[in-house]
Amino acid sequence: xxxxxxxxxxxxxxxxxxxxxxxxxxxxxxxxxxxxxxxxxxxxxxxxxxxxxxxxxxxxxxxxxxxxxxxxxxxxxxxxxxxxxxxxxxxxxxxxxxxxxxxxxxxxxxxxxx
Amino acid sequence: xxxxxxxxxxxxxxxxxxxxxxxxxxxxxxxxxxxxxxxxxxxxxxxxxxxxxxxxxxxxxxxxxxxxxxxxxxxxxxxxxxxxxxxxxxxxxxxxxxxxxxxxxxxxxxxx
Lengths: 114, 112
Description:
Order of helices and strands of chain B: EEEEEEEEEEEE
Mean pLDDT of chain A: 92
Oligomer: heterodimer
Largest sheet of chain A: 7 strands, mixed
CATH superfamily of chain A: Immunoglobulins
Number of helices of chain B: 0
Order of helices and strands of chain A: EEEEEEEEEEE
Structural class of chain B: mainly beta
Number of strands of chain A: 11
Distance between the termini of chain A: 37 Å
CATH topology of chain A: Immunoglobulin-like
CATH architecture of chain A: Sandwich
Strand content of chain A: over 45%
Number of helices of chain A: 0
């Protein structure tokens, strides 16, 4: 079964601090995604990537940066964390070939910005 | 533009009862459609997906969904729910562009 691993599982940060959320996939998927999940908003796409070295803005990229240094790793960076970024963050990997669209999700990172 | 609407934020049913979770989508093309399930403190897992052909698709654990192009809907059904089905269910669509758009989710509570 495809595997997506996120670290850390829980993070408490201070306002104005830098936060890095890491994601590793062993699926050899080209595409990777960062979502945040908030009550009443479902999953919202922050950044995504088509492969090593590429990052694309999703629907809510403001305040976030992304880095894809390799096929396996995709990081989400909050340079100046704010309380409004308190949320649960999910990383996913996937492929979109004919009849094979599917995302594999990590277990999530709960981030609290105080 | 693509969007997904799940009109019911929370659905409560008794164990053994039938279930329908509603999903409406908006898309400029007939998209691929999905239902995902999220158990507490876990990521989403795929339940079933629809590409084309028979509008009724079968998924895991007895779930099925029916696609209706005329109604732009993709409702999820189960004939008899179990307490372990309690979770949050997400409907999602992709217009073939490497992105998936999710609805806000429906929390299913199964009463014993």
